[in-house]
Amino acid sequence: MKKSIIFLSGILLTLNSCSDFLTEEPLSEITQNQYFTSPNHAYAAVNQLYRGGIQDLTYAASAYNGPKLMSGGYMSGFFDNPNYKGQEQFIVQSQSLSLNAQTSAGYLDGIWDPCYRAIARANFAIENIPLTPGLNDNEKKQLLAEAYFFRAFNYFYLVKYFGDVPLIIDTNQEDIYVARSSSKLVYEQMITDLTYASVEGDLNDLPMPKNNFRISKGTVNTLLADVYLHMSGFPVQENKYAEAATTARKIINSGNYRLIQNGNTTTNSAYNVMRTSDSEDEYMYQVEYMSGIATNGWMATYSFPTGAVSWPGNIFKFAITCEVFLPRPELLAIYDSTEDIRIQEKQFFHSQLTYDYSNSSGTNTETRNFPKMPYLWFDQNALFTSGQQDKDFKIYRYAEVLLIAAEAIAKTEGVTAEARGYLAQVRSRASLTGKTVEVVSNELAALSPNQFIEEVWKERLREFPLEFKIWEDMQRTRKIMRTNINNRGVISFIDIIGATNTWGNIFQAKDLLYPLSANEIQRNPNLIQNEGY
Amino acid sequence: MNIQKKKSDFHRLCKSQLTLLCSAFIFLFSMASFGQNILISGEVLDAKNNTLPGVNVLVKGTTIGTSTDLDGKFQISVPNESSELEFSSLGFLTNVRRVGQSTTINIVLTEDSQELEEVVVVGYGVQRKSDVTGAIGKITSKEILENPSFNALESMRGKVSGVNVFTNSGSPSGSNRVVIRGVGTINSSSNPLYVVDGVAMQDFQFLNPNDIESMEVLKDASSTAIYGARGANGVILVTTKRGNKSDKITVAYDTYVSFGQLRKQMDVLDSNQLLQVIKTGYENAPKYNDYQPGAAPVLTTNDPRLFDANGQPLYNTNWQEEATRTAVSQNHQISIQQGGEKSSVGAFLNFTDSQGIMLNSYMKRINAKFAYDVKPKEWFDFGINMLVNRTNENAVEEDGGGQSPRRTMIEMPSIFPVKYPDGSWSNSLGTTDNFGFEGMANPVHVLQTQERLRNRTQIFGNAALTFHILPGLDLKTQFGVDNQYRNYKDYWPTDLVNISSPNGFAQIANEQNMYWQQETFLTFNKDLGENHRINSVLGLSWQENNFERSSSATRGFSDNFFKYNNMGAAITPDPPTSFADSWAMNSYFVRTGYTYKDRYLTTFTARMDGSSRFGAQNKYAFFPSLGLGWIASKEDFFVNNLKFINQLKFRTSYGLTGNSEIGTYRSLATIASGTALINGERAPASYSNRLPNSDLKWEKTSQFDIGFDLSMFKDRVSLEFDYYYKSTTDLLLDRPVPHSTGFTSVLDNIGEVSNRGLDIMISTVNIETKDFSWNSSLNLNFNKNRIEKLGTNNEDIEPGPFWVSGSQTILRVGESLGSFYGFTRLGTWGTDEAAEAALVNQIPGEAKRSTTKSILGSGLPDWTGSFINKLRYKNFDFIIDFQFVKGGEILQQFFHSTQDRTGYGSGLVETLTDAWTEQNQNTMIQQIRNGPISGQSSELDSHWVSDGSYLRLNSISFGYNFPDAFLEKSGLNRLRIYSTLNNAWVLNAKSFRGFDPEGSSQGGNQWGQNMFFFQYPRPTTLTFGLNVSF
Question: Sorting pLDDT into bands at 50, 70 and 90, what band is B936?
């Protein structure tokens, strides 16, 4: 018996001798101190920035509620979600101009959070790329340029939506309760970042599809030009039009970018090419979507009305469609349908579908009419064959570069032939009657700078109705357009403050910025809410 | 109608089976009657020469019996001189006397002190029940099997005070949620720790209840502190069956077959009513839209597949009936137990096939268990216990939203058939008439063709060596494993609309979890002199868990042939995934119980726990507790003056326990790695995914308990009463950080939750005679949960779930966990309020809501309880078991799509019958509008909330034990037949419209209880069972 006691004491002693039994060593994740030890780590950290920030705002996660970038369309009053807004507070509040920091907190977080998530990841990359062994200088510069681009890109949307925001450009986690910096300061940081990316970055100067879908010098300069344009407008009003013009000219003068030209048929128009092709020299920045890797959810279904899925023949591969982003009649009246290709059936919009289907009684042809809905998102293959929407979301096209240049030049140098030419390129492409660039340019010759700039704004409305530019233009110009459904194509601009939206509600100054989410204010006691909320 | 017919079939079945069973009983009972011969009389006294009334006097081996009168006298006829008389009474030792020549028999019964010597299982050992200072509930094998079910937790419901078992789904695999003395955590698990034969067990719900000998529930700090960092949610100790203690062989067979059916149907629109709703919605369209006069949509009913020549619907499908069935389940258990002087052995085999009432859902289990105990030397014992458990399941989707059958059996329009005459499945799409239904596959189609196979194999066991070093001093060392293999296979066909159409989906996932523990401890258990008794444990423990998972999934099938058997046939594979993690614990524990003069009790317990999951600075923590007890009834005062009290024991305890059930690696800063789409392909991508917190530590629960056990009138009335106050601090909480950091939260120890409550159990023996007895037990639990602190500034936390109206629950200081958060429905806008409504872009007929959100209720009930009555008449027994809940609310999330909106599918009948019209303005239900045409108005508001109180007839059970005489003739030990009807009837609030007032479809624990977007209905089940042993 004594033997057994000795034996057991032995067992007890051996069991006690495992010293690092409680040390954790993760196997499916890398710990931070093991990271940025090889060039691949730096590439992976930058690659991540291509998803998970602004890109999230283009993702159509829900059948009932579009990507977050649509929010401005609702605020403008020119777009509606008639069927499902009854369960989406943010849309109702946008229409009644009563955004609520508390009841729409989740929606606002949905904009704020991805932007800051991307900024934190960019900061992490920016801090560590220079320290990563094995990267040569060119690689470092290129990777840093991309990281700087994405940091600026995400700040740009934050400032447009919320105004002053916390400016965080490092990964210091000691002081996490950062107060808001002035928008001007944030803009200056964007300019610093983008200037580095443009000048030092050693990036290719190519359309994004030709640059392996990575950020190019043209992408950086497009964003920079847009940043200058916005900084010059409300609410910062720091005159940077000259810089905007210079930057836009760099892109234009490189000769590497061009507008898609119309083909012979209406189905071959530039606008249908935009709809169907992801590889064009017009694309400056696009968020990629790809079948089998990352599809854009329900985006294609926003091109048909609610209930279309139950049309005879079971043609849709999706189970829900709805008017998530339905243009209001006031919006559709921006086009003169006798002059503008873009408003013709099956260009930017459509209102009819004819299709064949077979059932027990043979083959039938069915025609369905519906209110004008976005055709740009109509993806034949996704809707009727694969059920997977894989068209890229284009955030910047060359057309916008031209219009930025036209506006900035007119502001600084007057209505020059150059400025007129840029606007004319965009407008003549959309001419149903075949007006050439020269003809359009000549029509613009007699305008004063302010008149000319309004023509640019009109063109922006008509060229980007489904690319979510309308609200940011209203924010920066503080103008709202007026149209007349009995006199289509005629647009005038009035001051937005004091004007009514299409729902009869009056814009106040506070409506030009979103409130900060009540959640974020609660989490960060140093934040002060926007005035009026 | 069809449904009526099916129901009555079921009733007829029950009735005929019952009649058969009754006639069998009567036949057997009459067989058991005998003639009478010798008349015996006598008197029964206790040791102090007092006469004893009510003592049972039974001729052994027969049903002949009587009981003593008020003077302790009796008279009885016995068959012959060799008959034996058995005298028994509660609280006294049974006495048997052979009749012989004498016709007068006087008997003295001695008090049964054994009863007080009853032992209970506690952590790392057993204690005399009288010495225990903690609050411990117990349920025995017999009670578990009284309520036949797949899952032992199901049988525990209502039987132990302080323990709430929520059955949130009626699916055969639906795991019960067990909450002991309230929820004291937000982010960690609120499940108790299950310890089976000394080994911590995962997935306890799959354990075979037939294998269980007893379950002890440790509730207060005095009893749970020995489990330290895993004890805060309470501990359930399970002892499984082993070999026989005596020298004999027992072979037993237990079986039952049960028939389950939908208890009630939800009241949904039939075909004509649905068409009326759509028609009205279209007619109302101009009120909501700027239609040109005459342009309003018109309902047509021309599709020849759905309507006859007169436009009348061809079908009126009752989807609830089509998607459910009479579920036939069966259970077979064979056990062989043998005992002897040196060794004992038990072998157990079980097969259970448990069908769900929704088509094609099932759970099958085959379970084998083997236990062997041997004592090769006087100073050395060895025991081994091995269990292999295999479950195969086809699961029905139960979480979240989606178009799963539990939803579409309510929302699928009844105008569609299950299949068209050409044999094709119907769905809600593709009609030539202008319906605007949302896409849904019909529920029968989904249930019949979607596979969600969950196969699990568990190998569980332990081996223990005990050395008897000195008298009273033992050393035990044991090694235990819980090894689980899980294989999940899914195939979702290409034609399930809004689920997996058009591409189909296949997935295979494999998980392996290996847990081991090694524990060694000394026990010292000894009486020191007459007045002192010591019961001590001192030991150490090592535990480690390794988990790995891999899965692959694919889409893009060209047909439904291959399923998960050839995933290479599909064109768009998802990237494969794999994952691994592990955790470890190292602990030291001690318990010392000291009893003075059998009446003054004290227990000191402590455990030092180290866990890998916590921050480098906080790997170890210490959890002490102290329990005190006083058996007042042993004091002279009570013995002399308050004779009617046979036991009165006061207990109190205070101590600390912890909760460490969080994910692994949460204290470290790590980099998540995956891929990002760039240039049409996947590129490696990684990012920092967590704010580290090297200070991360345990949740700490301090618990105070005070209570008493009282039994009076020779145990005719017993009362257990406990008050507790539990305060959980250092809550492991995702502390919200400004999202401008790029992160949403950091896991931190902040916040505080308290639970206070009462556990009350009253048991009475109302009648106790030889032929007839009636026992009652009333179990009452009160719990009040309150969030005391949150975060750094007590800021609200909105944890989700997020769909309509943002986070549907909120965590707020001063309120209960699991509080529902939304608007208040003030009514519907009247025609005279049109101007006011217009200010918020609404019109009369729409819901009038508050503009701010507030707390609308909580899913956690205030009071829960049960009232169980057991009656015995001769060899018949009868149990009736009521359970109830008072307080607490239900969030009927399904109101969103079955009442607030119409036109996308079918819904509740009151959307038609009680909707707002100009004539019916005093209603909560909005005017009918057609969602697809006119939009909808649906926000989470108070109208969705219903009172959660209910009274349930949980079970009625009727059994017959064959008499000894019959058993002797047939060579049997025991033969019992029984029948049980479960969940027969529920009384709930009128405003509740779902299947069952207890439920949750929102996953896990973190959102509390009683919120569901459709339920897997809980069936009414009729069971017939047989137990035989020889």
Answer: confident
Dihedral sign, CA of A122, A126, A132, A134?
A: positive
DSSP assignment string, B557-602? -SSSSSGGG-GGGSSEEPPPEEEEEEEEEEEEEEEEEEEETTTEEE
Please tell me the distance from the alpha carbon of residue B169 to that of residue B177, in angstroms, as a whole number.
10
**CA of A228 to nearest chain B CA: how many angstroms apart?**
24
The tokens for B921 are 């303005």
- CB pairs A-B closer than 8 Å: 303
pTM: 0.83
Q: CA of A265 to nearest chain B CA: how many angstroms apart?
A: 29
Would you place residue B690 in the very low, low, confident or very high pLDDT band (cuts 50, 70, 90)?
confident
Tokens for A128? 């560590």
Q: Are B59 and B84 in contact (CB under 8 A)?
A: yes
Touching A: B residues 551-610, CB under 8 Å: 555-556, 571-573, 578-586, 610
User: A131 CB contacts (<8 Å, ≥6 apart)?
Assistant: A36
User: Inter-chain contact A288–B678, Cβ cutoff 8 Å?
Assistant: yes
Model confidence over A394-440: pLDDT tens digits? 999 999 999 999 999 999 999 999 999 999 999 999 999 999 999 99
DSSP A384: I
CB B745 within 8 A of CB B795: no
In angstroms, the CA B696 to CA B693 distance is: 6
End-to-end Cα separation, chain A, in angstroms: 82
Question: What integer pLDDT is reported at residue B1006 of this predicted model?
Answer: 60
| Residue A375 vs residues A327, A371, A381, B935: alpha-carbon distances, Å | 12, 12, 14, 22
**Range with lowest mean pLDDT among A357-366, B88-97, B191-200:** B88-97
Peptide bond into A371 cis (omega under 30): no
ipTM of this complex:
0.92
Percentage of chain B with pLDDT > 90?
55
- CB–CB contact A50 B678 (8 Å): yes
H-state helical runs in B700-842: 834-838
Closest C-alpha among B1023, B1022, B1024, B1001 to residue B171: B1001
Q: Provide CB contacts within 8 A for B427, sequence distance 6+.
A: A314, B416, B439, B440, B441, B442, B445, B497
For the beta carbon of residue B1021, count every other beta carbon within 10 angstroms. 22
Q: Give the integer Cα–Cα distance in Å for B799 and B917.
A: 38
* Residue among B374, B383, B543 nearest B461 (CA): B383
Cis peptide before B801 (omega within 30 of 0): yes
DSSP codes of every residue in B422-437: TSPBPBS---SS---P
> Which string of b and e fits B661-696 if b means at least 16 CB within 10 Å?
bbebbbbbbbbebebbbbeeebbbbbbbebbbbeeb
**Whole-angstrom Cα distance, residue B192 to residue B722?**
19
CB neighbourhood size of B229 (10 A): 29
Neighbours of A175 (CB within 10 A): 8
A interface test, pick of B686, B790, B809, B934 with most A CB neighbours within 10 Å: B686
Rounded distance between C-alpha atoms, residue A427 and residue A457, angstroms: 12
Mean pLDDT, rounded, for A81-95: 89
CB B127 within 8 A of CB B535: yes
Signed CA dihedral, B806, B811, B815, B818: sign only:
positive
Q: Do the chains contact at A24 and B467, CB–CB below 8 Å?
A: no
Mutate which: A24, A31, A55, A64, vs B, most B CBs within 10 A: A24
Count of other CB atoms within 10 angstroms of residue A271: 23
